[in-house]
Amino acid sequence: MPLTEPPARELQDCAVLWSMGEIRATDVVTAACDALVAGLDSPALRVLAACTRAEANYDVPDLLPPALDELGLTFHLVGSLAGQEAAVRALAARTLAGRLTSRELAFRIHQRFGHELPLAERLAHLDDEYDVLEYGDRTPAQVDADVLAEALRLARHPRVPTEPTGPPA
Fold first, then answer.
1. Same domain for 87 and 152?
2. Does residue 166 belong to any structural domain of this protein?
3. pLDDT digit string (tens) for 151-163?
4. 164 belongs to a structural domain
5. Fewer CB within 10 A of the end CB, N or C, for the chain?
6. Do 98 and 151 share a structural domain?
7. How many CB atoms neighbour CB 124 within 10 A?
8. pLDDT, tens digit, for every residue of 109-153?
9. Nearest to residue 31, comparing CAs of 1, 56, 54?
């Protein structure tokens, strides 16, 4: 399934955000339900979508990888470079969709990755700019515009794995 389809992209983004600790397991279950409603289907996706809130924290780690695999999507290993980059792009897409503010995006990226992830370095720098606005000549709106421009660049960045993303065969 092409990752350009919105339900597949949303499920993929939720998976990587969960694996990086950005969202809860219950959010993954909700995304699985939404994917089913949108027309994606596989046996493992149905099982994942059937998890209760009480089961989510325990079952998502085992159910998510096969559900993604059946749909031709990628499960990124925790801490992997490809996973970190995918998480940055997913947060950028959420910002462009109005689910995060520019300030929240820059803060979350800076907090999670510092200045260590080259793909997200510009956002970490912009978070620093928010912190010194009162001492400079830039306005919050100007920094917001720069963050949105960077989010757009990141969301358009090719989603190509830079390293193996799943368990060895």
1. yes
2. no
3. 999 988 655 443 4
4. no
5. C
6. yes
7. 19
8. 999 999 999 999 999 999 999 999 999 899 999 999 999 999 999
9. 56
Give the side-chain half-sphere CA count within 13 A for 123.
34
The CA distance from 103 to 123, in Å, is 10
CA dihedral over 43, 27, 92, 148, signed as positive or negative: positive
Residue 76: inside a domain = no
At residue 52, what is the residue type? Answer: T
58 lies in the same domain as 110: no
Two tokens at 46? 């149905």
Give the count of alpha carbons within 13 A of 33, CB side only: 11
Count of other CB atoms within 10 angstroms of residue 46: 14
- CB distance 155 to 88 below 8 Å: no
The answer to whether residues 89 and 64 belong to one domain is no
23: left (phi over 0), alpha (psi -120 to 50) or beta: beta
Look up the pTM and report it. Answer: 0.85
Tokens (6 digits) for 90: 């997913």
| Last residue within a domain, chosen from 70, 99, 124 | 70
Q: State the total domains in the chain.
A: 2
Helix (H, G, I), strand (E, B) or coil at 148: helix
Structural domain range at position 126 = 81-156
Residues in the chain: 169
